[in-house]
Design a protein that fits this description.
Blueprint (H helix, E strand, L loop, with lengths): L2 H16 L3 H24 L4 E9 L2 E5 L5 E5 L12 E4 L6 E4 L13 E3 L12 H16 L1 H7 L6 E5 L6 H11 L3 E6 H7 L4 H14 L3 E6 L2 H4 L8 H19 L6 E7 L17 E4 L5 H12 L10 H6 L6 H17 L7 H26 L1
Parallel strand pairs: 7-10, 7-11, 8-9, 9-10
Antiparallel strand pairs: 1-2, 1-4, 2-3, 4-5, 6-8
Helix pairs in contact: 1-2, 3-4, 3-5, 7-9, 10-12, 12-13
Length: about 375
């Protein structure tokens, strides 16, 4: 018999034998013992408690996985609500008895790690991409707005799309515009940051991001720099490579788990389509590929008109002539030219922008791009 229990029994027997009213004394001692036991139970239930994952339920017990990866068969407290595999629970650290289920069944607050917003960008804010806009409307907007139409026709739309092209051509703008047009929650994930920040947790983060998207539906999950996660697989050697592979496999599993007419659509974006693993763009996943090119002369004119519509321009400014001087400029660079031209006017304390302001802005943006190009070549040269 444990020494603590023997001591309590001896104390009870002594008081019982020496008391004038033994029954009263016994009742008092039993109450004290019960109170002590209650205090002991409450102490076990108090913090710190360990956060664990339920792997399997076995009648009144469960198999749990503790943070270091080990698994144990443990008891479930009678006060704990009904559990199922996958639940996150709090357990006391001595015997690992499950005390209670966590109210939120996830380890991360996803909103801290991804950009979540309701965009206000409209289709009219995007210039020079009318063909791409039409395609996105057909494969993303229409299924979200009129799913019954697809059911009547008997076809299934793509689960997601891939936007590929040079940096600054408008891939993110297109994704935000379709989110705004469908009144969807826009969830932006950067592939490279997901791998770098959450090594060891990337696959779990991917799973929870998609669970979050389902709760926020209708939603658009926009994965930028997709090539950081979905590049062609090589021989798995380092721990980092294994982590990227696990994260990528979880992404494929999440894509396979979606129905085509769910209220969640996935849009991937990359500057390097040539290095993507074919598994991500096969039918049933991101099977609609849309190229976003460097704008043509007509497209540059459309974009420039959008960015100058609210600017005070001098009568010497010819939008068409300025467009001619911005050959091979991306949409982002055209916007940068307008911003820089405005700054040149502000520096001279003018309330309007002149042709010379635009010309100097074009040269400045060109020089910045050339400098970045040299730095890039220096790194890999």
């Amino acid at each position: 018999m444990p020494a603590k229990e023997k001591s309590i029994i001896d104390s009870v027997m002594y008081r019982y034998s020496t008391s004038a009213n033994p029954y009263e004394e016994e009742n008092r001692i039993l109450k004290e013992t019960i109170n002590r036991q209650r205090e002991e139970i409450e102490r076990f239930k108090s913090t710190p408690l360990m956060v664990c994952e339920v792997k399997e339920i076995l009648n009144d017990s469960a198999i749990i996985k503790i943070p270091n990866g080990n698994q144990f068969l443990v008891n479930i407290s009678g006060e704990c609500e009904k559990l199922k595999a996958g639940n996150t629970v709090l357990v006391e650290q001595k015997n690992l008895t499950i005390i209670r289920k966590m109210a939120i069944n996830r380890r991360f607050n996803i909103e801290k790690y991804v950009i979540v917003e309701k965009p206000t960008i409209s289709w009219s804010d995007i210039g020079g991409l009318s063909q791409q806009v039409q395609e996105i409307k057909e494969v993303v907007e229409l299924p979200l707005k009129k799913p019954e139409l697809f059911k009547k026709i008997g076809i299934t739309p793509p689960k997601g799309i891939l936007l590929y092209g040079e940096p600054g051509t408008g891939k993110t703008l297109l994704a935000k515009a379709v989110a705004a047009s469908t009144n969807s929650t826009f969830i932006e994930v950067v592939g490279s940051e997901l791998v770098q920040k959450f090594i060891g947790e990337g696959a779990k983060m991917v799973k929870e991001i998609f669970e979050f998207a389902r709760r926020k539906a209708p939603a658009i999950v926009f994965i930028d720099e997709l090539d950081a996660l979905a590049a062609k697989r090589i021989e798995v050697g380092t721990s980092g490579e294994r982590e990227v592979n696990r994260t990528f496999m979880q992404l494929l599993a999440e894509l396979d788990g979606f129905k085509p007419l769910d209220n969640v659509k996935i849009i991937g974006a990359t500057n390097r389509k040539d290095i993507l693993d074919t598994a991500i763009i096969r039918p049933g996943r991101l099977d609609r590929l849309i190229q976003i090119p460097i704008p043509s002369k007509e497209a540059r004119l459309d974009i420039l008109k959008i960015h100058t519509k609210n600017m005070s321009l001098d009568k010497t400014v010819s939008i068409e002539a300025i467009t001619e001087r911005m050959e091979n400029f991306s949409g982002a660079e055209i916007k940068a030219v307008c911003t820089e031209a405005g700054y040149f006017a502000i520096r001279q304390d003018r309330e309007y922008v002149t042709r010379e302001d635009f010309l100097k802005a074009i040269e400045k943006v060109k020089q910045e791009e050339e400098a970045e190009g040299k730095d890039f070549a220096g790194i890999f040269g």
